[in-house]
Write a structure and sequence with these properties.
21% of the residues lie in helices and 31% in strands. It has 201 residues and is α+β, with helices and mostly antiparallel strands. It has 4 helices and 8 strands; from the N terminus they run H-E-E-H-E-E-H-E-E-E-H-E. Residues 42-199 form the PPIase cyclophilin-type domain. Pfam families: Pro_isomerase. It comes from Sphingomonas rustica. Its EC number is 5.2.1.8.
Amino acid sequence: MMRWLVLTMMALACALPAAAQTGTAAAGKPATVRVAMETSEGRFVLELEREKAPITVGNFLRYVDQKRLDGTVFYRTVRVAPNFGFVQFGVQNAPKRVLPPIRHEPTTQTGIKHLDGTISTARLAPGSARGDFTIMLGDQPSMDADPTKPGDNLGYAAFGRVVEGMDVIRKINEAPTAPGGTFKGEMLAKPVRIVTARRLP
């Protein structure tokens, strides 16, 4: 009986580490993935929360892996105050670049907040997000989901952050804007070109 108990305990001890490796780790995928963005104003690096926001990160990586962001631009900057606002880039619904919309992952689900350097997916109604993205300058909790508010209170879907090259984002945010355009006074007079977007090893 004692020998059986010892063997059983040893078998359980061996099984526990294996069980802990299920999910992302078992598939050999780290919780985060990094993407380098080379632009006409310099390079920055994103760290994406693949484990926390799998749908939104998967969508962004499809645009990266299929090179759909190469040649697109940063086209919009919102400056509420110095170093506070956001910049926007993406495919702008170009028929040859845009992919189908994705299910919305609110910040209440992912736990990823709109802090300085956070990247999220631009949208109209929840579930309409495609291939346009925003990067925050300054902490912006107003873009997080807030179930206490009426109407559409699901916010934007945050899915990562800038970990290198935030100076490039600030430079884009401070660039001159044109008086007209879709977002009056917010469209960059000279859009900033994205040369390449590539995963890092």
